[in-house]
Amino acid sequence: MRALRSRRLGLARGLKPEVSQPPQLTDPLRSQVPVLRQAEIAAVYHTQRVAGDFYEFLRVGQSRVLFALFDIAGRREDTRDILIAVQRTFRTVAPELFAREDLNEPEAMIELCYQINRTILEFAGGVRSCPAFLGCYQEDLGTVCYANAGHTPGLLRDGSGITALEATGLPLGLFSHVTQSASTCALVPGAAVLIVSRGIVEAESNDKDFGLEGTREAFQRASADTAEGLCRNILSAVQNFLQAAPIHNDVTALALSRTNSAKGRSERLS
Questions:
Q1: pLDDT tens, 171-198?
Q2: Cys staple from 63: which of 95, 139, 219, 242, with CB 3.0 to 4.6 Å?
Q3: Segments making up each domain of the chain, as ranges
Q4: In angstroms, rounded to a whole number, what is the distance separating the alpha carbons of residues 151 and 229?
Q5: Rounded Cα–Cα distance for residues 212 and 207 (Å)
Q6: CA torsion, points 91, 95, 96, 99, in degrees to nearest 10?
């Protein structure tokens, strides 16, 4: 993509992208949950956030919606400026990359990761690990193009069971030229994708972690038929496991579910 190569060349020469800068903020903007056609998306966190978890939703065209779950290392008060900067980059750069109808989604996703990685390094003043899961849902096709930058694996549930959406690269914020890749999966009607924060898989009780396996089992048992309901099912399972409200870390779940209007099987695409 010529536009992406031109942007990358400018950055290599030390030039910043020519984007308008909004007024300085003291707190992140609230992310508005978009309405989808024959699908739902939601994110739910437990109680007050204390660490660097935050999620984003953004419609970037008539048929494309971006979503992301970030986990910036550090306490909330220490990561606020980085979080605000990442949110600004996401909301400014993503529409430019994904709005074209003839775009190459994996290339656009990789470029978005590159821009966010650069933002983290700049505003952190150095290395600051940020595992992240970013996805682009294509409503017309029912597909998700995603990049998993060292994040907890996403989980795709359909009639065939649960498939892990593994890491496609290292966490953001570690290297100036980190290599990322992107993959695509399909959601048939009735399928759902779940992404959870590290605070869920690392929840510990009686020297035992809830883990990815506990998340997988809770997701498989979840009976809710809405995206928000699926998130709340997972958070309830973690609280039951801990036998108390989780306070050790941010605990966040994000789900994308497609309306069950037909039966089928989701297939992983190369």
A1: 999 998 877 899 999 999 999 999 999 8
A2: 139
A3: 2-12+27-269
A4: 23
A5: 16
A6: 180
Q: Angle of helix 76-98 relative to helix 105-124, nearest 10 degrees?
A: 150
Q: pLDDT digit string (tens) for 10-40?
A: 333 333 444 444 445 555 667 788 899 999 9
Q: Which pair of tokens denotes residue 213?
A: 């396996």
Return the structure tokens found at 112.
Answer: 């978005």
Closest CA to 188 of 215, 164, 157, 219: 157
Owner of token pair 């089928």: 264
Q: Using CA atoms, how far apart are residues 163 and 157, in angstroms rounded to an integer?
A: 7
Return the structure tokens found at 37: 């056609």
In this structure, the number of other CB atoms found within 10 A of the CB of residue 225 comes to 13
What are the Cα distances from residue 270, in Å, to 180, 190, 257, 267?
15, 22, 21, 10
Tell me if residue 215 falls in helix, strand or coil.
helix
- Cα–Cα distance between 268 and 123 in angstroms, integer? 36
The answer to whether the CB of 172 falls within 8 A of the CB of 250 is no
Task: Write the pLDDT tens digit of every residue in 136-170.
Answer: 999 999 999 999 999 999 999 999 999 999 999 99
The helix/strand count (H/E) of the chain reads as: 6, 13
Note the pLDDT of residue 69. Answer: 95
Is the entire prediction scored with pTM above 0.85?
no
Say whether 165 sits in a helix, a strand or coil: strand
Q: List the one residue out of 61, 33, 89 whose CA is nearest residue 226.
A: 33
C-alpha 129/C-alpha 21 separation (Å) is 25
How far, in Å, CA of 84 to CA of 260, rounded? 36
Q: In CATH, what is the architecture of 2-12+27-269?
A: 4-Layer Sandwich (3.60)
Residue type, 163: T
